[in-house]
Each structure stands twice: as structure tokens, then as C-alpha cells.
Amino acid sequence: MTCPIVIIASTTHARPGRGVSRAQTRPPAANQHVCRVRPNYTVVVAILAASPEFDSVSRANLPSPLPVDEIPGFPAPFVKGAVDTAIMMLSSTTVAPTAGAVDAAAGTGSSALTVTALTVACATLALILVLMCALDLPYFFRSLFSYVAAKCVKKKLRVTDTAVYSSVCLTTDLDVYLTHMNNARYLREIDLARIEFLLRTGLWQELRRRGGLIFTISNSVRYRKFVRTFSRYEIRTRIVYWDDMSIFFEFRFVSKADGFIRAIVYNRQRVVDCNADELMRTVIGGGASAAAKTTDADGAYRRPECPIEIHHWIQSNLMSSAILKAEMGDGDPL
């Protein structure tokens, strides 16, 4: 706590002849009270305590001034008036600094919070930018969304059913013409549709139970019409054929406005560390009804006939593989 010292006077009446001019030693005016004591003597009248509660403290509770007879050179009425004036001035100015100090403290606290919030926001933004440069965050977030939707929201399907995945052509999907979907985006979209299909049919769960994995080894895309900007479409996914090593998917991009098939994609998935035919037989058998498991069990498990376009596509891949193998001299690119 600070204690302001209220000084009535520190004026010293210097004597002429000691380096002081007569202008400096003029007699004081009649209404001035001059301390006629030794030089540099300071008369202290009162010490008043500075407190936040000063405005509610009565004068009787304040420290008493020095007795009048202990203050040499000043008459009692002058001392009393000076003390009253000091008390009045101190009481009128003490509350304002206290309120100002409170406002300053509040302002400092809010400024610190603002700086902290801005720092956290800038750090978060910088981290997001770094991750977006290092990773394809939209793809991972959409894959996670497809996973959660297939596991928790959408109903289960049989592996022989057709799954429907809905989407819209956004500005991030456009090519340089800014009017329709980029050709590469079709393959990105079938990844998301395939995630939902594998989870909803139980194919992925059975594959992992067997310790196997599945990878894309070939795609065949036919673009029939543009998928326009902001147009809604759906991807209809189904399995059209499988053999001992691979599963063949068909993806149809169908616009919701007119039902036109905008593009069709054939996708070959290689199954590793397990037999694809046994995998499909198990999943189909687990999804078949009790009636199908009795008299029509063989029909339920029968492998479908290979579609003619898939047959020619397989032959085309075999020819390409043979050519590449001859060029490389070893290994099978498939």
C-alpha cells in the first residue's frame, strides 16, 4: 500500500548576500505563509492512506495529522485548512484511478485472451495447410465418411445386390474447362462407392477374417456424357463376375435429373492371400436365406457367366501382359 505524503510547504526564505539576488529574496505577499526555518526543511502535515475503500472511509478513520504545535512556522487555521483541502482532493481522485486500474486489468486480460485465440487459430490453420500439402485430406475424410455411413447408417446388402452411392459434382471435381467433372475424378468416386459396397455386403469383413487383401489392378472407363457442375448423380455398384484370383465390379454413373448413364467403369480387384471364388461362395452362402441353402444351394453358389465385354477385356489384358513380359524379359505385370 502506498502512502501519499501531503506537503503544505517547502518554501525557504533565503537571506540576501549568499549568491541569491534580491529579486529572489523579495518579501512574500500578505496571503503567503513562509516557513521561517532552516533551509530545505519540509513540513509534513499529514500522511493519508491510499485505499480502494477510501471513498467509504470517514475522515475520523483516516490517520490524524501531526499536532499543530509540532509544525513550526505555520498557524493552526492554515494547517487545518490545508488538511481539509488535502483530504477533499485525495477523496475526489482516489476512486477514479481504482476504476481505471480495474478497466486496465480487464482490458489487459481480454487482450491476452484475444492474442491466445489468434495464436491457436493461426497454428491450426498452418497445420491444416501443411497436412493438405502432404496428404489428400478431402479424400481421406470422404473415405472415412463412407466407412461410417456403411457401418452405422445404411442397411446391409447381399453381395449379389446393387448398391447405390449418391454424390454431386463440386468445384473440386472440375477440369480446366470448369464445366464438367474431371476424367480422373471418376476413378476417385468409384473408390468411395466400392468402400460402401464391401462393408455393406460383408465382403470386407470376410476377407479380413481370412487374412486377405484386395487391390485394383485394372480399370476400363467409357465416358458417354459429361457430369455437369453441381449436377447430382449416383453410382450403381455391382459384381458382374469373379474367378479364382479376381473380382470384377461394374460402376454406372447415372444422373438423377434424367436417369442417363453418363459413364460406365469396369474395375478388376485382385484378391491376395486367399481364393476369390471361395471368398465369394462363403459370403453368398452367409447371405442366402434358409430356403436357398437347401434345394437351391447349388444355384445360389454358382459362379455367373462371364459377360462378353468382360471376356474381351480379360483377353486384352492378357495380350498386353504378354507384350510387356516380352519387352521386360521377366515377371508378369499383372
Task: Provide an overview of this structure.
The chain is of the alpha+beta class and 334 residues long. Helix content is 42%, strand content 18%. The strands form 2 sheets. It has a 5-stranded antiparallel beta sheet with strand order 3-5-6-7-4, sandwiched between helices. A two-stranded antiparallel sheet has the order 1-2. Strand 5 and strand 6 (246-255) form a beta hairpin. Helix 2 (137-153) packs parallel to helix 3 (183-201). The chain is elongated and about 125 Å long.
Overall pLDDT metric: 77
Q: What global shape is seen?
A: elongated
Total strands: the figure is 7
List the strand order in the largest sheet: 3-5-6-7-4
List the secondary-structure elements in sequence, H or E: EEHHEHHEEEEHHH
Backbone structural class: alpha+beta
- Percentage beta strand: 15-25%
Amount of helix = 40-55%
List the helices and strands and how they pair.
Layout: E1 5-9, E2 43-47, H1 76-134, H2 137-153, E3 163-168, H3 183-201, H4 203-209, E4 213-223, E5 232-242, E6 246-255, E7 261-272, H5 276-287, H6 297-301, H7 308-328
Antiparallel strand pairs: 1-2, 3-5, 4-7, 5-6, 6-7
Helix pairs in contact: 2-3
Overview features:
single chain; 334 residues; alpha+beta; five-stranded antiparallel beta sheet; two-stranded antiparallel ribbon
Compact description:
The protein is α+β, with helices and mostly antiparallel strands. It is built from 7 helices and 7 strands, in the order E-E-H-H-E-H-H-E-E-E-E-H-H-H. 42% of the residues lie in helices and 18% in strands.
